[in-house]
Amino acid sequence: MSMIYNLTKFNETWETRKLRSLGDFSRGKSTHRPRNDHALYDGGGFPFIQTGDIKAAELFIVQHQQEYNEIGLAQSRLWDKGTLAITIAANIAETGIIAYPMCFPDSVVGFKAFPNETTELYMHYIFAFIRASIQKSVGGSIQDNINIDYLENLNFKIPDKSVQDEIVRVLSTIDRKIALNNAIILELEETAKTLYDYWFVQFDFPDENGKPYKSSGGKMIWNYQLKKKIPSIWGVKELKYFVRIATGSFDPRKFANTIVEHYSIPAFDNGKYPVFELAENIGSTKYGVEKGTILVSKLNPQFSRVWDTYCYSDNAICSTEFIPYRCVDSDLYSFVYTLMNSERFHKLLCANTSSSTGSRSRVTPEDTLNFIFPEPERHIMTSFASVCNPMLSKMKLLYSENKTLTDLRDLLLPLLMNGQVQVL
Fold this sequence. Notes:
alpha+beta, Adenine-n6-DNA-methyltransferase TaqI, Chain A, domain 2, five-stranded mixed sheet, 23 strands
């Protein structure tokens, strides 16, 4: 008999099943070439995800980076809400359940469960359990990939449907709490960005009477550098006076015994996210950064996001594809962080790029230091920081809670899947 991925003495009485007996596997569709043809996307309307979006998801895929238009949809397929998406190329055997109708390419397989046999959620946890084994078995090829036939013929010990449902209840309760925490984190980030916009873009920061400055008739003057009116007593500064690019990063392998965190953060994928990994997995392409370092991706800046390492740990590990910034004045950290999350800074990232291999582009780090912005009075920046700091602290607590929850889920997953622990 072929390998049974979860066979142990604890689940010998469970039925051995091929995954194809549990539901339908169907490959995604994207037939037009080239795949990045603007004609497929202009105007949008139909969510389109790729392997990186699935890898970045926790349990449910709740966001997308691209949208097909009617032309794009015609050469693809729209999958129903609740479909389990499984990657078969690039990021192999990553899974996520789509939260609303989405399209995906042929590097992704959609799974719909036979209701009397299993659920998409249980199948998600099956793949979470066997993912590492699958990736190891196909690793090292020119381009790691698998196919539907490979998936359909995998053998697995399957308990009764009632037991499956209890296993899902335990694991998904943890994952849903992680998802809720992530939603709160995103809301806090958006609140901070909105507050920054209100104070430093619309210039309605509280005046000496606590009223919104510009709306209450505060004096504004034209600034030729910014080509807009700013408060009369404000100046203009370049980012280089507030941050420096950290060049003193340390070799994370030197503290392998002290850093063992694996935070529940989307993995570095197409330049969108940083990597925080177990210290023993650190390779030559990772380096250590100190607490309070602000990370900005150099790669594909159109997807770039500003990350605040303060929220994750005292120290962190990231890919060398990131620009690490250190704030020269810790009291102004919240101001600088939200400034670098602003729309104007993002536009600078997209504008200051250099060509590289394929469709990728990279930000030139030194150019970002020339970013100019209205410089508020010191007391306004510190007042803003006093409002934002509790948000960052809350984010840190939520990330810490997510780490604990992730560790618990990862501990329970193999015990439940091989029958060693039973759910009453």
